[in-house]
Design a protein that fits this description.
Helix content of chain A: 25-40%
CATH topology of chain A: Rossmann fold
Largest sheet of chain A: 6 strands, mixed
Largest interface: A-B, 36 and 38 residues
Distance between the termini of chain C: 24 Å
Chains: A alpha/beta, B alpha+beta, C alpha+beta
Number of strands of chain A: 6
Strand order of the largest sheet of chain C: 3-2-1-4-5
Oligomer: heterotrimer
Order of helices and strands of chain A: EEHEEHEHEHH
């Protein structure tokens, strides 16, 4: 667990994430893992009782997990949302915007590099899942 | 035209610094080429056949004089004194050094320009009508909507790793000068029965190896929901677009495989969901952007008279000048297709001159066209003659707009590592064969488009005559296609039969134009005759 | 014969392996043997070049040239800009590509 970058104040979920299939078999699990391309909307009825959803990135170029993350946040999920797999420092800022608040990169990311990458973009053009005010909103305050 | 505020400037400046950091990490070995490649591509930097190639975005093809002058400066300082205007209204530099790229980008940022998302599997630079704001037939200027989409799509957190690249075109007239339905998303700004502005959406068009014409997805999206509707389409594409095969990853394949009806159902469901997510900017933001595109201070009471006594000028006037929405003004096209030249290439001296003319004659605005020419959108009719004289002196007054020598050509094997055959020499030979301007005018509107490989950057599917270069056992071979169009009469060209050698294709062009001249009826363009007669007489003449 | 090529990391220039370093001129290329993978690994690690690969080449009267047209163009520059050509080893080099 050394490689996990976490941006939450609560304690990390201890429970291992189960696959989507086992989650549906085993109704008491509170941590689940979505692979690339698995439909995040299937989890919508269970968001209240989930403490952790892990989304796998088999390759950094496969961007389906970004949509999955936003969908979960847009439906009110407030638990931990973790990006696991081929997660690189140059993707962190986008992932944060889509609602990820923890990262388990396969190849460790240096914490200072992560901090720098996340601090770089002071302004954003869109509303997304991180609650940041887009430029178009600031322009008309 | 649009002017950055401090926010826009900050975004571009931040990108320059981010890229500077990424280049430093690459050169220091902290990033491997595999890791760096998607980062540099997201910033328009390719490793091409000879060197790094940088593609600079020209949003909706609009530039002011200062920006054009900066493009010239970059050609001189960082490249070999020239650059290439592309079929997506952008500009490419062919000989860029990686280590100098951050400084180059900083120079660009100083004139509100960038290379953001000019490559990579993200939303690319948004193209538009080169006559926007000047055309008599537009509902409104389409560029504010393109600008709204530009800002929304820049650094979009969800859509920066799409299955494949994604191209928008936005127009606002029934005449389509931007090949709108051959884009991933084509938007036509329209007015409904109640006089309200909205967006008609087409999705799933494209060229490449599987050309498709985008079907209509929605007839009218209220303008205040333009962005959330685009977001809905992108989300459906990001989730369901194929990622198993890069040749089947464009949205056109998804729309095709899903069927337009099912695709629309998915998009509408996503749109309904996103309507509650505060995606769209308020009306005040659109108004702010629209204000940037207000008409320049046109003079009134100008004469429409033009002195046509110089016969060479009169030829240019008839061919390269279009009607303007205001009396006393005209739209003038600067052809970058001199006979024997390289389509779309301009030297730094020519760019400097075009910058001067932009300032002097066109309210400090010019446009790049997808046909690789430059437009001065707002020229006083009284100034046309002196403008023409200056262009003529610089070799920029070829009177061939939309004629057979106004050839669209990709860089081809001379520059591009994807190409299978050269495009430019073929374009040059055809232009030379038909160099006589009277003969060209006799042939009338004839859009000839050449691609050096199946990726179709030269739009060969959309040519009245298209040429596709292929590699046949190690030698260049050229297939001939007929009957395409990228305009409002959009159609995909069909291949005639076996390909030709480089000289053979030039003869073949002459053969098909001879068939046309012999068979045409009054007022028919080449493509009209082809549509009336079908392929047979052309085939017969070509292959006997 | 096989020769080894790549692009200089910083400049992007097309370069050819000469046996001990990289040259802008294809005429300096040497035939690479079984050690090519080692050369590539070492040179990539040294961050001097990108995108290394071997190409088929032949000895012509005036020097070594790639066989395939794309690699010929790559080795000598755009055929439509003779002014930008890399000094060709063959004075008649203009002929074989056009």
């Amino acid at each position: 667990m050394d490689n996990i970058l976490r941006f939450r104040d609560d304690g990390a979920s201890e429970e291992p994430a189960v696959t989507l299939d086992s989650f549906f078999d085993q109704s008491n699990a509170t941590a689940v893992r979505l692979e690339d391309g698995e439909d995040a909307r299937q989890l919508i009825p269970y968001l209240d009782r989930l403490a952790m959803i892990e989304i796998g990135f088999s390759a950094f170029g496969d961007g389906r997990g970004y949509s999955a993350a936003r969908i979960l946040r847009e439906h009110g999920y407030t638990g931990e949302l973790r990006a696991q797999g081929d997660v690189l420092v140059d993707q962190l800022a986008f992932m944060r915007r889509c609602g990820f608040d923890s990262f388990a990169p396969e190849k460790p990311i240096n914490a200072a590099d992560a901090k720098k990458a996340l601090a770089r973009w002071e302004e954003v053009y869109q509303n997304a899942a991180d609650g940041r005010k887009p430029i178009w909103s600031k322009r008309h305050e | 035209m649009y002017k950055y505020d401090s926010y826009d400037q900050q975004m571009v400046d931040t990108r320059v610094e981010e890229f500077r950091d990424q280049v430093e990490r690459r050169i220091a070995g902290k990033l491997t080429e595999d890791q760096f490649k998607p980062l540099r591509l997201m910033n328009g930097l390719y490793l091409q056949l000879h060197a790094y190639m940088l593609r600079v975005a020209i949003p909706y093809g609009t530039l002011n004089g200062k920006q054009m002058r900066m493009l010239a400066h970059i050609a001189r300082k960082y490249d070999r004194d020239y650059a290439h205007f592309t079929t997506r209204q952008n500009i490419q530099y062919n000989w860029i050094k990686l280590a100098e790229t951050p400084d180059l980008l900083a120079d660009l940022a100083s004139v509100e320009m960038h290379a953001i998302q000019t490559s990579g599997n993200c939303i690319r630079n948004i193209s538009s009508d080169q006559y926007a704001g000047a055309a008599a037939d537009e509902v409104t200027d389409p560029r504010p909507y393109a600008e709204l989409l530009r800002q929304w799509s820049s650094f979009h957190p969800e859509f920066s790793f799409l299955p494949r690249k994604f191209k928008f075109a936005v127009i606002a007239s029934d005449e389509d000068r931007a090949a709108m339905r051959l884009h991933d998303i084509g938007i036509q700004i329209v007015r409904n029965g109640d006089g309200e502005i909205g967006a008609r959406f087409y999705a799933g068009g494209g060229m490449g190896r599987t050309p498709m014409i985008a079907p209509l997805i929605r007839d009218f999206v209220p303008i205040g929901e333009l962005v959330s509707y685009a977001e809905a389409i992108l989300r459906v594409y990001n989730r369901y677009g194929r990622r198993d095969n890069k040749y089947k990853a464009r949205i056109k394949i998804l729309v095709h495989e899903m069927g337009a009806e099912e695709f629309i159902k998915e998009v509408e469901a996503e749109f309904t969901h996103l309507q509650g997510q505060n995606i769209d900017a308020p009306a005040a933001e659109l108004e702010r952007i629209i204000a940037h595109f207000e008409d320049p201070a046109f003079e009134t009471g100008l004469s429409d008279e033009i002195d046509r006594s110089d016969p060479d000028f009169a030829i240019w006037l008839d061919q390269n000048v279009h009607a303007h929405k205001r009396p006393g003004y005209a739209i003038a096209t600067i052809s970058l297709k001199p006979v024997g030249g390289i389509p779309g290439d301009a030297s730094s001296a020519q760019m400097d001159l075009m910058a001067d003319l932009t300032e002097q004659y066109s309210f400090d605005e010019c446009r790049v066209t997808h046909s690789q020419n430059i437009v001065l959108p707002h020229v006083r009719k009284a100034d046309l003659y002196s403008l023409w004289q200056k262009l003529d002196e610089a070799g920029l007054a070829s009177p061939n707009l939309d004629l057979i020598s106004d050839i669209i050509a990709c860089p081809g094997l001379d520059y591009c590592s994807l190409a299978n055959a050269r495009s430019i020499p073929v374009a040059q030979k055809i232009a030379k064969r038909f160099a006589d301007i009277d003969r060209q005018k006799e042939l009338g509107e004839l859009k000839l488009k050449i691609s050096g490989c199946i990726n179709a950057c030269g739009h060969h599917h959309a040519g009245h005559i298209g040429i596709l270069g292929v590699d046949r056992k190690g030698t260049e071979n050229y297939q001939l296609l007929l009957g395409g169009s990228g305009a409002e009469d959009v159609s995909l060209a069909k291949i005639t039969g076996p390909g030709f050698t480089e000289d053979g294709i030039v003869d073949a062009i002459e053969t098909v134009t001879d068939v046309y001249v012999a068979a045409r009826e009054d007022g028919e363009r080449f493509v009209d005759t082809y549509r009336r007669l079908g392929m047979d007489p052309f085939k017969e003449a070509l292959y006997g | 014969m096989k020769i080894l090529t790549g692009n200089d990391l910083k400049s992007g220039d097309v370069v050819w392996w000469t046996g001990y370093n990289w040259s802008r001129h294809v005429s300096d290329a040497i035939e690479v043997g079984d050690t090519v993978d080692q050369i590539i690994a070492r040179e990539i690690a040294a961050r001097t070049v990108n995108d290394c690969y071997t190409v088929d080449a032949e000895r012509t009267d005036t020097g070594i040239l790639p066989v395939h047209i794309k690699e010929k163009v790559r080795a000598t520059g755009p055929t439509v800009r003779p002014d930008l050509k890399i000094a060709p080893p063959d004075p008649a080099a203009g002929n074989w590509v056009i």
